[in-house]
Specification:
alpha/beta
Length: 207
Amino acid sequence: MSVNHAPSALKGLAETSHTKARIFLIRHARPMVPKKGYFNKAAAQGYISDYDAAEVEQFVMEHESIPYQEVKQVYCSTLVRSQLTARQIFGEKVELIVRHEFREFERRIFSLPLLRLPIRLWLVSARVLWMMGLNSKGIESFRQAKQRAREAASFLAEQATQNPPVVLVAHGLLNNFLRWYLQDMGWKSILHEGSGFLSVTMLEKKG
């Protein structure tokens, strides 16, 4: 798999990143987990466990906005897909800093033991119920997850003003909340590629 991002509007940004504080939020690559077919509750629970433990697809990523030569350390989560993606993008010489607060928002399969559903429907339903406060038994609540993301955004902002650029390889939903909270703190989103695998968001703050 080859990913080559070269948006013309971003030309020159990588070479001049040291002039501004910048934060890069990158989503992990696609985990190698089968998802076709219909799943009962137990199989859906097993899918989540397999997803969290899975290796990721091989890829080559060339993104014009990322100042590869300036990146000496990369933040990532405790989940293996985050760490494996960071290694593939930045190589063995970059220091990986693993922090618990950068893990994805947790999810829990709700109790419908007799149903067989596509895994996407299980996951979306579980997430919606969790956000409504109806499916958080045994895991962090939506409120707790948002507070964690807010604190993580403050940490990234502090690091970016002291030692730019800051790079985080993490997860789709977490990265979205980090972007929103950083924007609330005055950071400007220069690039936002969505929430797909290997998508990149870049934020900067002048001064």
